[in-house]
Write a structure and sequence with these properties.
This protein is of the alpha+beta class. It has one domain: Rossmann fold (3-Layer(aba) Sandwich), CATH 3.40.50. It contains four helices and six strands, in the order H-E-E-E-E-H-E-E-H-H. The chain has a four-stranded mixed β-sheet with strand order 1-4-5-6, with helices on both faces. Strand 4, helix 2 and strand 5 form a beta-alpha-beta unit. The chain starts with a helix and ends in an 8-residue tail after the last helix.
Length: about 160
Amino acid sequence: MKTKIKFLNLVVSLTIMTACNANSKTKTQDLAISETVIETKSKSENREIKVALLLDTSNSMDGLIDQAKAQLWEIVNELSYAKCEDKSPNLKIAVYEYGNDNLNAEEGYLRQVITFSNDLDEISKSLFSLTTNGGNEFCGKVITTALNQLEWGESDN
């Protein structure tokens, strides 16, 4: 039963927020022959996928932290192969840790490890360097911080 609770904590704690920024702008072409308006989408800019990985590094993750990091990396790896209209979207990943007593209490025991980046080597290095210590887990605080602190883009998409 304790393992199930820890696994559920793992599932709940592995919060992933995504935002897809289509970066598509419409332009209108007036045809001289008729009054028909044709809307086309600019394909010069790639779409973006933005993901914030929020990892619980409190003591409740002891024994599960390596599995959690591997699962998160598997998600990043899958997203790196994504295609949209035969193009690879620009994948940007941010990483936060929370619940670790080594982190600043005044900031809610959370830390932005890496801001949005498309450098998968740096993201991997940062993610797999995280370790557990402590027990103050403020999930809502880290979610709110990631939503407000990161540059998600202007598009509703």
